[in-house]
């Protein structure tokens, strides 16, 4: 069998290099996709923590110490609006629609929750914040959103939300809306609510 001509050998070498290059790119893309898929779980978990969606709100173990040691900024006044959205047979509302507070000031808002059914129900509250950039500056010491709540048939209970707004809140944020969605869990109910598309407080 005769040796390939110089032109044919050059073409084969070029094709071989192209194949190796393509294989390298495919291996890189495969590794990238695997890494992306592997990172989706912690990324989704972090997104839920930041937005307050689809997970029980974690207790802030440092909030009480923070509230005790932080200085109140009396030079600023922040309006905190309170919004309540019930998914199902609930009566759910804050005692007041808004509070005027100073950053660093310990504040409390009470929510009234009524089970309008003739049976015991277990429910969960999911908070969200507007603007979203205010989320890490809103520190809750006590909240009914930290765990699922059980209310008896036709029972009404009041739950306090104790919070402090970090004085490091950006200066351009003058209003924070704390919005809760309250929904039944268990008994075949969905554990991930469809949150309202309208702006909080609207």
Write a compact overview of the structure shown.
With 202 residues, this protein is of the alpha+beta class.
Main attributes of the structure:
202 residues; alpha+beta; 5-stranded mixed beta sheet; 4-stranded antiparallel beta sheet; 2 helices; 9 strands; 26% helix; 33% strand; disordered C terminus
Gyration radius, in Å = 27 Å
**Silhouette:** elongated
Describe the largest sheet.
5 strands, mixed
User: In terms of structural class, how would the helical and strand content be classed?
Assistant: alpha+beta
β-strand amount:
25-35%
How many separate helices?
2
Report the strand count.
9
- What is the straight-line distance between the termini? 84 Å
Q: How helix-rich are the residues, as a percent range?
A: 25-40%
The H-and-E topology, N to C, reads as: HHEEEEEEEEE
Mean pLDDT: 80
- Biggest sheet strand line-up: 3-1-9-5-7
Instruction: Extract low-pLDDT stretches.
Output: 36-41, 47-54, 188-202
Secondary structure: elements and pairs:
Elements: H1 6-51, H2 63-69, E1 78-87, E2 90-94, E3 98-101, E4 107-115, E5 121-130, E6 138-142, E7 149-151, E8 156-165, E9 175-185
Parallel strand pairs: 1-9
Antiparallel strand pairs: 1-3, 2-4, 4-8, 5-7, 5-9, 6-8
Describe the structure.
This protein is an alpha+beta fold. 26% of the residues lie in helices and 33% in strands. It has helices at residues 6-51, 63-69, and strands spanning 78-87, 90-94, 98-101, 107-115, 121-130, 138-142, 149-151, 156-165, 175-185. It has a 5-stranded mixed beta sheet, with no helix packed on it. The protein is elongated and about 90 Å long. It starts with 5 loop residues before the first helix and ends in a 17-residue tail after the last strand. Residues 36-41, 47-54 and 188-202 have low confidence and may be disordered.
């Amino acid at each position: 069998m005769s040796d390939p001509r110089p032109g044919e050998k050059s073409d084969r070498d070029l094709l071989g290099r192209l194949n190796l290059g393509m294989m390298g790119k495919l291996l890189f893309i495969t590794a990238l996709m695997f890494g992306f898929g592997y990172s989706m779980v912690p990324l989704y978990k972090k997104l839920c923590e930041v937005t307050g969606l689809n997970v029980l709100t974690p207790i802030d173990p440092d909030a009480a110490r923070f509230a005790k040691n932080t200085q109140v900024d009396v030079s600023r006044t922040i309006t905190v609006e309170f919004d309540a959205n019930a998914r199902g047979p609930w009566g759910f509302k804050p005692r007041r629609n808004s509070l005027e507070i100073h950053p660093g000031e310990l504040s409390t808002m009470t929510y009234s929750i009524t089970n309008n059914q003739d049976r015991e129900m277990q429910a969960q509250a999911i908070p969200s914040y507007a603007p979203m950039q205010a989320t890490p500056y809103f520190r809750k010491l006590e909240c009914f959103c930290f765990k699922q709540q059980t209310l008896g048939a036709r029972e009404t209970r009041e739950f306090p939300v104790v919070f402090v707004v970090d004085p490091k809140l950006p200066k351009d944020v003058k209003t924070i809306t704390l919005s809760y969605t309250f929904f039944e869990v268990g008994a075949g109910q969905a554990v991930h609510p469809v949150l309202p598309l309208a702006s909080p407080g609207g």
